[in-house]
């Protein structure tokens, strides 16, 4: 029993087991989040660990804290140039799409004897958002790429639809506890929350970029502390002015990801690792909170299967096809977006809200939602690669290179940055010596990746097919150099 062991040792063991599970997830083709939840459940009251954890308030606070950092990291690593073409469609899906999902799901749920129509809308709101981490973790482990603008659309939608789901959940709880609240007041509250969240996120992102440039802390190791303070301050200030903190930290991350400031690469790497730590902690806590023997109850499983079916085959497709009615996406792409509506940690976190409010059906709803999430990840997750291939939307995955050096923005570096360029098979630069490339001043090749080797280029180094070049130089000049390197050979005649 883990409760008889030193708490430091217990925490260390759980983290170590989570790291091992994360490494195994790619080999056994099971999403890491399922394994993290499984470890938490094994450590819980029904498992061999025997830890008795039933504090819904603590789980809610941990989930809120962790989700803020996960959303910020997701925004930080999002390139505005990638999402700009689909941002309107993404906003529609992350707002109207989430609302439609909640409403459509409320209809069949309200027909069940266990729930009234208010409970049905609450349950529909809780399971209305998708999980970006689950989608891309599965696509990465299954080594599936996507054609066109599908990847940025899914990334933006699933990263930005959590605020809407949170608002709908809190609204539904308010409706249950204060039935006399007028609808127009809730509508105004929604507009204020979203507007304040987006505005505060943008302002804090711009301010953070400006402040880091002028702060110039002598010790580089302190910049992660600055990064943590940005997320916490952005979330806290936004919630104080009645804005949506989740939207604010996501927008703040996108703004900072597109900005220039000192040690940006190091800060991105730190937040990526910190977000993984938050995911591990969040899933472990949620795994501890659930009671497996209650989840496998016949009533919970039967209701869970019914809700999962309606969610995957009715509500999500209806929301996607209506929300993308005027988009340029074809029916195959819309169908795939419908199937990638995986549920993850957010619905489980939102399911703790009724628990904290003492709702009489809260525990039963929590178990049903937990079962729905497991069903969604296992069924949809295991078939994503097949669905992409069946619809003709899969593409080759470009393996990321592991370079033996990294460059970061440091004092005096200006707008210099690095860029990877893959030489296509018909590039005119193939067969040319580095000295003959005639790059503009300030642009150079740092390394050449050739197979499993890394070469330091010299003037006489000959470029070969499938080489990957790591360029360094001014951002404005790098795009032209990339175009020149990848220019195809001109056909004779």
Briefly summarize what is shown.
By secondary structure, the protein is mainly alpha-helical. Helices cover 63% and strands 6% of the residues.
List strands and helices in order, with pairings.
Blueprint: H1 7-28, H2 32-43, H3 56-76, H4 80-83, H5 87-110, H6 117-126, H7 132-141, E1 145-146, H8 150-160, H9 162-177, H10 183-215, H11 223-240, H12 245-257, H13 264-289, H14 292-295, H15 298-323, H16 331-339, H17 345-350, H18 352-357, H19 362-390, E2 394-395, E3 416-422, E4 444-450, E5 453-455, E6 468-474, H20 475-486
Antiparallel strand pairs: 1-2, 3-6, 4-5, 4-6
Helix pairs in contact: 1-2, 2-13, 3-11, 3-12, 3-13, 5-6, 5-8, 5-9, 5-15, 6-9, 7-19, 9-10, 10-11, 10-12, 11-12, 11-13, 15-16, 15-19
Could you describe the 3D structure shown?
The longest helix has 33 residues, at 183-215. The strands form 2 sheets. A 4-stranded antiparallel beta sheet has the order 3-6-4-5, covered by helices on one side. A two-stranded antiparallel sheet has the order 1-2. Helix 3 runs parallel beside helix 12 and helix 5 (87-110) packs parallel to helix 9 (162-177). The protein is 63% helix and 6% strand. It has 2 domains: 2-395, Up-down Bundle (Na+/H+ antiporter like fold); 416-486, Regulator of K+ conductance, C-terminal domain (Alpha-Beta Plaits), CATH 3.30.70. It is mainly α. The protein is built from 20 helices and 6 strands.
Strand content: 5-15%
Structural class: mainly alpha
Low-confidence stretches: none
Find the count of extended strands (DSSP E, 2+ residues).
Answer: 6
The biggest beta sheet is recorded as: 4 strands, antiparallel
Supply the number of structural domains. 2
Radius of gyration: 24 Å
What CATH calls the topology of the largest domain is Na+/H+ antiporter like fold
Tell the overall outline. Answer: globular
Helix coverage percent: 55-70%
Across the major sheet, the strand order is 3-6-4-5
Oligomer: single chain
